[in-house]
Amino acid sequence: MSRPPVLDLDHLARYTAADEALEAELFALFTSQTENCLARMMETGDGEAFKAAVHTLKGAARGIGAFALGEACAQAEARPLEPEAIGHIRDCARETLARIGQVLAERPR
């Protein structure tokens, strides 16, 4: 099985009607939400609070086309508080945020 894309820009373009300003705004919101969800995941010792943060991040990731992160979150929902699942989410989130940074840096200003 192949790994889902870090960031599916075609999906995002369909979602935003290729409006780069809207994409940039969504990237900023997603970055903030990712940081918030990761912090909540790391702070909680409560499986339900963890799953709520993971679920929120999963929806946000899938919405912008960050399918690898969305899949990592979907898997972690079934394994709340498992250190490997948390680490995988953190790695996918870092990779996604780095890719977002690349996309924004490549755009003409």
> What sort of overall outline do the alpha carbons produce when their principal axes are compared?
elongated
The top-level CATH class is Mainly Alpha
Count of helical segments?
Answer: 5
Gyration radius (Cα, Å) is 14 Å
The major pleated sheet works out as: none
Structural class: mainly alpha
Order of helices and strands: HHHHH
CATH architectural group: Up-down Bundle
CATH topology: Four Helix Bundle (Hemerythrin (Met), subunit A)
The CATH superfamily is HPT domain
Calculate the terminal CA-CA distance, rounded to whole Å.
Answer: 38 Å
In terms of quaternary structure, the protein is: single chain
Note poorly predicted spans.
Answer: none
Strand composition percent: under 5%
Give average pLDDT, whole number: 90
The total beta strand count reads 0
Q: Bin the helical content.
A: over 70%
Count structural domains. Answer: 1
Pfam families: Hpt (PF01627)
GO molecular function, one term: protein kinase activity
Domain HPt: 25-93
InterPro entries: HPT_dom_sf, Sig_transdc_His_kin_Hpt_dom
Structure overview:
The radius of gyration is 14 Å and the shape is elongated. It has a single domain, classed as Four Helix Bundle (Hemerythrin (Met), subunit A). The chain has five helices and no strands. The chain is 78% helix and 0% strand. By secondary structure, it is an all-alpha fold. It comes from Marinicauda algicola. InterPro entries: HPT_dom_sf (IPR036641), Sig_transdc_His_kin_Hpt_dom (IPR008207). Keywords: Two-component regulatory system.
